[in-house]
Structure formats: C-alpha cells, structure tokens
Amino acid sequence: MYRDLLTSEIQGEFINLNRLATLYPNFNMLEISKLFDATLARLDYPVRQTLIPVLLVHIGISIDRMLVGQIVHYDTKDDTIESSKEWQVAQQFLEEVSQLLGITIPPCEVKMMARLLIGYRERDVYQASSQQKQLELFVKETLEAIKDSLGIDFGEDLEFVHGLCIHLQGVLERLENQIHVPNLLLKNIKSQYPLVFDMAVCIANRLSQMIGMSLSEEEVGFIALHLGASYAKDSHAKKQKAILVGALNPHLKKLVVEKITDRFQNRIEIVSSLPYFEESVVLEKNADLIVSCVPLKHRLPVETLVITPFFNAQDELSLFKLLNELEKRQANIEFNMMIGRFIDETFFYPQLKVETATEAITVMVDKLKRYSIVDDSFLESCLQREACSATSFDYSLAIPHPLVLNSRQSVISIAHLDHPIEWGGSRVEMVMLLALNEADREFMTIFFDWLARIISDQDSIRTLVSIDNRDQFIQYIVQH
C-alpha cells in the first residue's frame, strides 16, 4: 500500500488520509487524525495542511511502536521544550491517544513528538542554529547530487528541504545520544519503494561520510518518508499536451481552464482552445489528449475525454484516471524500448554458481570490467551501497548497483543462480546488476517503478526467476 502513496501511479495521493489509514491495521488512524486536528484547533496551533500527512505518518509509526511496548527513551539537552507550545500540543494529544487506545505514554514520547512539531514550525518563526545552517548546506549539495545523478529535482520543494533539514538534525541528536527508534514500516518502504529508498540511502551515505558515523536502516527508512512525500507531489516525466474543444463563452472557458490547470498544473498543459474540432490543429500541436465539452468522434489515435461545461468532480476524477493511464502507457513504451537494449546476451548468466552476495557481485562486475563497461571503482561503489542497505528483496531477487551512475555504457547484467544464497536476510535466486551511464539516468526511475509493480505480484516474480533464456526473459518483462 505504501507504493500507492509514494510512486507515480497514484499521483499526489500521499495526502489521502483514508489511504494512509490502511497502513495501520492495529488502530484507527482516522480517529487519531481527528484527535490531532481537534488538539491543534483547541490550542490554536497552526500547521500547514501539506505537512499533516507527513506528521501523521510519524505519529502512526510511534503509536505502532508503543502498542507493542517499544518505547524510545528520548532525552535532549534542550531544556526549553517542556515550556513550549509544542509540548502542550503533544501532551494533550497523546493523553487523548492514551485514553483512546488504552496504552501508557511516558513523558519521553511526549518530548519526542514536541521536538518533531518544533522542527515543523512555520519557517518564518524558526531561527536556524549553526548546526542547522550546516545541515542546510549539506542538504542543498546532496539534493544537487541526486538531481545530477537521477534527474529528480527536490530542491524546488522548499517545504521538503526545510523538513528534511529538521529531520536530519533529529537524526544527529539520536546518534549523539545513542537512541534507536524502531521503524516498523521499514520492510514495506524498502521493498515497495526501491527508488525512493535508494535516494534515502544516498543521503544517509553522504551524511555518514560527513559525521563519521553510520545510520541504521530504520533511519534510512525515515528519510525515505520525507523523500516520498515530496516525490509524490511532482513525479511526472512530462506534462500531457491537451486541446480543449467546445464553443464556450469566455467566462465558462476561463473557468474550465483554471480548474484543470489548478488541479493538474504539474501534469497537463492546455496548448490550444478550439470552438470546434480541427484535425490539423491536433496534429500540429502533437496533442496527447483532447478534452471536449461536447460529444466528439474523430479518426485520430488521440485519447478523448468528454466533460461537462463546468468541469465538475466527476470530470476531475475521469481526467485523473486518464492522465494516470497515459503516463503509465508512455513509461511502459520507454521502458520496453530500453530494457532490450540494456540486457545483452554476453552478460546474461543462465546458471551462475556462487556462494555469497559479494561473490555474485564480484563475478558479474569482473566481466563488465573485461569488456570495458565499468572501471575499477564500480565494484567498490556496489559493495559500499550494499553496506548501507542490502539490495535484496523477499521475492528471490537482488538488484545490486553503485551509488553513482558512472558506467561507460548502460548494461543490465542478469544472473540466475545455481542455488539460492543468503543475501541481506533474504533468499536470493536471481540477480539484476544495474550498470547505467549517466546519460540514461531517467531509466533508473522507470526501472524502479517497474520493479515496484513486479514485486507486488509473487507469481510474476516466480515466473521471471524461472526463465533462463535472454530473449524469453525480455519478452516476459515487456509483456508484464
């Protein structure tokens, strides 16, 4: 279900609280959300609406912990927390949670939630410390590195940047005080959102190098939550070009255009508005879809959506579904075109006999080196990535790859293992080693979206693992 929140298929549904509630079967998150909203209103404590889902994810993880008796004994040198408005909010809210769920919530948990709220306080009243300013510089440089490597720009989302800085300050606090915070959603995040988790690994690795201390997988998972919330806002490869058709009066036309662009501003661009259908204009503008206010039939292979002249809620839902389908279709075309080119018979192993994950990676990388696909740094980078967090999944599959995209050309090396091996706590039978050139960085996003889809279907994974012929392997991938 996390996949529905963070990946591009449910564009922006991270703010859907009903969907969020399904992540926590042990308690009613919608009731918790109502308590939280009521507490904020009662104490006149403003929180930006876009931050509510992220805060609720953190709160949900904390409640899940406490329900099974996992208490974080949080302490901090900041003596001002208990006199803050955030302490008052956290205390009253958690008292009501305690009564609702019948659990005891100690003061240390109140303090940790208050610290979280302080971090997310409105930016104009937040005074950054020298450590925070250092973290802001670190985050800026790290997000630039992610942009250069994967072509995904988080830097424009200032709310996310601020939130990540605050979160990393909390990470440093926990490391300094040797506080371990369990993340009961780690397994879901890691297996169902591989791209988001991989970007979190990149941030954690750079932070570890800066401070000389390693971050746990649980902390990497928390970083992924922040990345996922931002990624869900703007995870579209390109805007769909639309033509609006219909003889509307100027006021109605302006209203329809404003409604569409306001709701789907990152996903659609109205390139032309016509009083009636003109085939030549549709072809000239290379339109991806036609939005018509009147019933319309034509011969062009362009998707057409008929809406009411007022663009009501049902129209919005229909356009939402159509955009999802168009984006999925376009991503599949790109993926299918590239996957066959990257999987070369030379680097396809029908039966590879190895005993460990390190041996499998080493054997596969050595052959890439012999063909001058990668240099000596590639193996070290792959092993360093594994040290941060194993790239295996609970579906017989491992996807090792380096921390940076520095291959001379893009290759996906496939190995069907002679027998299953232990790999990061999982039983692995097939390895897909990614060696991508920076020029093909967009493929990384498409590949991980495909991976998120395929590993949600165990039958598909079992079939894929059983295919030891390169052409049949590619054919199955393209068809699924």
UniProtKB/TrEMBL annotation:
Ranges where the PTS EIIA type-2 domain occurs: 341-480
Pfam families recorded: PRD, PTS_EIIA_2
InterPro entries assigned to the protein according to its UniProt record, in alphabetical order: BglG_antiterminators, PRD, PRD_sf, PTrfase/Anion_transptr, PTS_EIIA_type-2_dom
Segments forming domain PRD: 23-127, 130-237
GO biological process, any: regulation of DNA-templated transcription
Entry keywords, A to Z: Repeat
Protein name per its UniProtKB record: PRD domain-containing protein
Source organism (scientific name): Streptococcus cuniculi
